[in-house]
Amino acid sequence: MSSPAQHLAASAAESVVQSVDWLAIAPPTIAAVVGLGVLVADLFVGDARKTLLGWVSVAGLAVSLLALLPLLDGDRATFCLTGEPGVCSYTADRFTLVVQFLVLGGALLAALLSMTALKDAKKDLPEGEFWFLLLSSAAGAALLPASRDLATLVVALEVASLPAFALVGIRHGDKRSSEAALKFFLSSVTATAVSLLGISFIYATTGTLYLTEIADRIQNVDGQLHTVTQAGVVLTLIGFAFKTAAVPFHFWVPDTYVGAPLPVAAYLSVVGKAVGFSGLILITVVALPSYADVWGPALAALAALTMTVGNVGALRQRSTRAYSAVRLLAWSSVGQAGYLLVPIAAAAYADNTDDAEKAIGSTVAYALMYAAVNLGAFAVAALVSRTKPLNRVSDYRGLYASSPLSALLLAFFLLCLAGLPPGIIGLFAKVTVFSAAVDAGLGWLAVVMAVNVVIALFYYLQWTALLFRAPEGEPEQHRVPAPLTAALALTGIVGIALSGAPQLILRFAGIGLL
Amino acid sequence: MIDINESVMQFLLAFVVVGPLIGAAAALLPAPPGLKGKSPEQAVLRHGMTVTGAVLIAAIVLALGFDHDQPSKMQASTDISWIPALDVRIHLGIDGISLPLLVLTALLTFLCALYSYFKMPAGPSPKAFVALLLVLESGTLATFAVLDLLLFFLAFEMVLIPMYFLIARWGGEQRTQAAWKFILYTLLGSVVMLLGLLLIGLRAGTFDIVALTTDNHPELTTSVQVIAALSIGVGLAVKTPMWPLHSWLPDAHTAAPTVGSVLLAGVLLKMGTYGFVRILLPITPDGMRTFAPYLAAFAVVGIIYGSLACLALAKQGAKGDLKRLIAYSSVGHMGFVLLGIATMTPTGVNGALFANISHGLITGLLFFLVGALKDRTGTTDLDTLAQQTGAALYGRAPRFGGLLAFAAVASLGLPGLAGFWGEMLALFGAFRPAEDLSRPAFLTFMTIAAFGTLLTAAYLLIVVRRVCMGAAPKDGPPLADVQTYEFAAWTPLVALTVLAGLWPAALLGLSDPAVQQLLAGGNR
User: Fold this and answer.
1) Is A84 helix (H, G, I), strand (E, B) or coil?
2) What is the distance between the alpha carbons of residues A446 and B38, in angstroms, rounded to a whole number?
3) N vs C: which end of chain A shows fewer Cβ within 10 Å?
């Protein structure tokens, strides 16, 4: 048994100075540094020029996205044990890069949405703090898929979550906002505490925090410690299930989304989910493949429950209730989280690692599709909420008459989420998830998912149909601000391009990741 | 018939599938200068007519260039990789089974566009109407032209959204519920179908229909085939529709606008039966053999059920709706198609394919006529129309009445018209079903189905008596007879009904070799 500390002591004689591969860690680092810079700059920038901070943050996120490019040529790893170069804390492999792309791209789009929201809020929202929090959270989320030891994983998880609580409650004096933040905070902290307990159990039985080492050593755990290990596995999973908003850890979602500023809800729905599922993948597939018989059925049941509860919740939304559009998107995101879990569960039943990696690839491909179209739907919701602050589903009636392009885009995004042509990418992303389930022999889960797809179609299509109904009263023309236009254009182009060439993201399901 | 370069054929087939989609996108854009016409509405309706016309011409040229000596060979085929991750290939091709359906679709859509140009259904902007019609056309044509399981599924799903909006926006009473019922039923069916398609594709390692048909796939064990055939069959049976999964159909037909009903009955239902022939018969023969007796039983129940429902609707005082009546008659007619397929013999399957086409022609015509009748009298309610003595169309609008009687008689399967051969061959097939199917059972089914033809004749004659005959009221409002554009839209259907009735060999010669090959496992 050797702990990292022992390793360190043993190798101290050789070298205590590690060389850090700055290029590999550039994406999260840039986001974090720009976030700090914006916080400091906020002190020196006059009120009139606060929008500058927004553009700087967007640029920072764009640069950290570009920093992914030089990493494409091969796997890199850094912060390795000096004695064992194969055991590292930070790895920039294909999986990492794809999830980092998803997270940073999602954060970039959320930032574009936020620029308009901050401008419209007219100083109700503190700009400097907002950008700092958003960028730090994005940095944490980008660090998470790269981390390959449990300590880094938890730190990344917390760096991603803590600023998110503050973002949810950032509207000073708004009771709903603070209540949502408190609810989010309390339930999230409980989940973190639970998973920390689980991690400590796993550390106690294996004596290591490195994921690959855990995978090796957990197979030779002393028989007496077997129960502790199993408890550790379950407790750790619960923490990450919470982040993906899997049922029964989903109850915070609707209230949090409604209470948060709309761009923050958009951010949580995509980046928050990405954090949860990438953590879940690392823990299950990388660290605990030998416990597949424990987490496989558990995740399958969780997936079935999550999609059913989420879709039924969305179905029950009355379209005239205040904020029903955001509520519906919140519930539907719970349902979508269920689909995301299906391939991870299927990975447990794979005969070989190759199939497991392909299943993970399906989850990532689905998440990429979901991120693009869900952010697009939120962008249209942000646009509508400028003139109709209550953001009810019924407010979307006749959107086609007032702004045809955004109505067509929203219809396209909703049909992508539903998985019906013309949303071809949504259809094929669902097909990959279905095929992962069928391939793994999880026929019952595939059938549950099929029923859910039909339930989900009902509310997505109801909303879509509403867009084209005759409007009540005169259609209002709204001018679309530049950042919103950019967000809409980006998501629209990505969605349509992917529908024409689904291979762009589905190849992850074909070649496998990790 | 005429020799056309293979690459031209490939282009034509691709154009037939993609052309309407491009046309749909163009329909949403403002008309270019020089093509503005009298009004934007007129311009976009004319655009729809032009595009569907071009597609029809391309389909006819395809039919002419088709090598009629080798109808069992896939012709004009294109095979491009699209999504390697899922092994989805853009594989297009036509043989003797799909070619007639392709031409029928192109023809009916063009006639619908022509009809709407003169008689726009009441509802919101024609722009969206034309765009949806074209997307619908593309989806149906793609269903008949693609040779990849996942692409087939994509095409199958593609028609849902346009049809939903056609019913929900341009339909009659109760259209919202009817549109919901339509889309939820068919979607539930098609996701179940997707699971079956995935099962086949993942087990066999390919989604290519031609490869699955011709090659031997020992991975597809009997149990896999049974599960796959069940789930795919359910999806296709909802679309066909097979009793007892038919209940979306009468509502959808009643609520849909005329053009919607014509396409729904004429083309969309065929997607289901085509799937049975193209996918289930050759790829999962063992699964199909297991379910064939049940399929035949449900088909026969459908025949009797449809006819009895029609009889009840046609009765005096039943407040029967003519559109609903024709919808139920479709359930019966599609029952014959399913019976033919269930026999798993060349005779039965040929009959099924023939009945497909003839049902498309005749029921399309019937829906056109009933739609026009509704425009003239404002109702399709039989009792309101006929009142005490009968609507007396013979007296008030002789040509119109004559056409209606012609369509009804063709629908009941009068020898010499298209409706006769398909049902006849389906019954013949049931007389001597495939070897490992129970002959006594099929003989029973045949007897019951034959009785169904009598019931069909009964209700259609009652309809003719109540709508066409009777004493013309002296002071009643005048009834316009058939207009020129209506002649233009209906004549092709009448002509083809007669032609197919008198010269069935034209169609059977195309389908028979292809069917023989399919049933023999791709190689004869």
Assistant:
1) coil
2) 53
3) N
Across the interface, which of A365, A428, A510 has its CB nearest the CB of B84?
Answer: A510
Q: Report the residue from B154, B183, B198 with minimal CB separation from A421.
A: B154
Q: Which residues of chain A are within 8 Å of residue B202 when distances are taken between CB atoms?
A: 435, 438-439
Please, which residues bridge with residue B80 across strands? B90
What are B392-426's pLDDT values in tens digits? 778 788 888 889 999 999 998 888 888 899 899 99
| Nearest to A398, CA basis, from A321, A377, B28, A406 | A406
Q: Which residue has the tokens 């282009």?
A: B11
Q: How far apart are CA B357 and CA B422, in angstroms?
A: 9
Amino acid, res. A275: V
CA distances (Å), A394 to each of A12, A317, A411, A462, B19, in order? Answer: 66, 11, 15, 10, 36
SS in 3 state form for B206-273?
CCEHHHHHHCCCCCCCHHHHHHHHHHHHHHHHHHCCCCCCCCHHHHHHHHCCHHHHHHHHHHHHHHHH
pLDDT exceeds cutoff 90 at B443: yes
- The domain limits of chain A are 292-514
B179: Cβ–Cβ under 8 A, 6 or more apart, which residues?
B164, B165, B167, B168, B171, B252, B255
Question: How deeply is B287 buried, as exposed, middle or buried, from its count of CB atoms within 10 A (0-12, 13-18, 19+)?
Answer: buried
Report the pLDDT value the prediction gives residue A476, as an integer from 0 to 100.
67
The mean of the pLDDT values for chain A is 87
Q: What does the pLDDT read at residue A16? A: 57
CB contact under 8 A, A428 and B86: yes
Mean pLDDT of all residues in B480-498:
89
| Residue contact A428–B188, C-beta within 8 A | no
Question: According to the model, what pLDDT value does residue B52 have?
Answer: 94
Q: Is B183 on the interface with A (CB under 8 A)?
A: yes
Instruction: Locate A144 and state its tokens.
Output: 């998470």
Contact: B194, A434; criterion CB under 8 Å: yes
Interfacial residues of A (vs B; Cβ cutoff 8 Å): 365, 415, 420-422, 424, 427-428, 431-432, 434-435, 438-439, 443, 446-447, 450-451, 453-454, 457-458, 461, 465, 468, 470, 502-503, 506-511
Confidence of residue A332 (pLDDT cuts 50, 70, 90): very high
Section B172-201 average pLDDT: 89
Judge whether residue B478 has pLDDT over 80. no
- pLDDT of residue B523 exceeding 60: no
Q: Do B194 and A450 touch (CB under 8 A)?
A: yes
Query: A434 vs B195: CB contact, 8 Å cut-off?
Result: yes
Q: Does residue B149 sit in helix, strand or coil?
A: helix
Select the residue of B153, B158, B191 nearest A450 (Cβ to Cβ): B191
| CB-CB neighbours of A17 under 10 Å | 6
- Amino acid symbol at A253: V
Q: Return the domain boundaries, chain B.
A: 6-519
Q: Give the distance from residue B192's alpha carbon to the nearest chain A alpha carbon, in angstroms.
A: 7
Residue B163 structure tokens: 């049809």
| DSSP one-letter code for A149 | B
Is residue B367 within 8 A of residue B343, CB to CB? The reply is no
For residue A475, the model assigns a pLDDT of 64
Instruction: Determine the average pLDDT of the residues in A75-80.
Output: 85
ipTM, interface predicted TM-score of the complex = 0.89
DSSP-derived letter for residue A291 is: G
Residue of A nearest to B200 (CA): A438
| 3-class secondary structure, A319 | coil
Q: Check if the beta carbon of residue A180 is closer than 8 Å to that of residue A169.
A: yes
pLDDT in tens, A48-60: 888 888 999 999 9
Write the CB contacts of A56 (distance below 8 Å, at least 6 apart in sequence): A34, A37, A38, A41, A131
Q: What is the mean pLDDT of residues A409-433?
A: 91
pLDDT band at A512 (very low <50, low <70, confident <90, very high): low
